[in-house]
Amino acid sequence: MHLVIDGYGAPFEKLNDTDLVYRFLNEYPDAIGMTKIVPPQVYTYQGKTPEDWGVSGFVIIAESHISVHTFPDRQYVNIDIFSCKDFDATSSLEVVKRTFGLPQVKVWTLERGIEYSTPREGYNGMVHERVSIGVPSRADADTAN
Asked: In the chain, how many domains are there?
């Protein structure tokens, strides 16, 4: 699953905080059962225009990667959580919103590598997608009758 988050309205102080970005990237993989391969890398960068500067960081995990790109002057952040191992996108989003103080987000989830899923993984992914869009499961439909 690839969870893509665009966050809007974040406080400048949080988006300018390299320590906050580092702590998030260092602690969050463990919180969702992922395995860090290397410590996070976090950098402050200067953009071509003054408002394009920010903090970028990433951590490589055995399951793929997590990245953060902040734009403090724009009160905007991009966060990607990409894993070949299933994780709870809803709780991940709540952690991200709380960590970075995000009052508004746009979110996309992409299923990747579906062709290589075991039948059980495929079924679990399908159930997760149906629940996330409000389609009742078979068990829910059976109990409604």
From this structure: 2
3-state secondary structure 52-64: HCEEEEEEEECCE
Are 130 and 140 part of one and the same domain? yes
Q: Write down the pTM of the prediction.
A: 0.76
Task: Give me the residue label for tokens 């390299």.
Answer: 18
Average pLDDT value for the chain: 84
Write down the catalytic residue from 56, 69, 117, 128. 69
The reply to whether 106 and 123 lie within a common domain is no
Q: Which of 2, 56, 65, 84 is catalytic?
A: 84
69 classed as catalytic: yes
Q: What is the pLDDT of residues 65-110, one digit of tens each?
A: 999 999 999 999 999 999 888 888 898 999 999 999 999 999 998 7
Given the residues 56, 64, 67, 117, the one annotated as active site: 64
Q: Tokens 């309205």 map to which residue? A: 9
For this structure, is 56 an active site residue? no
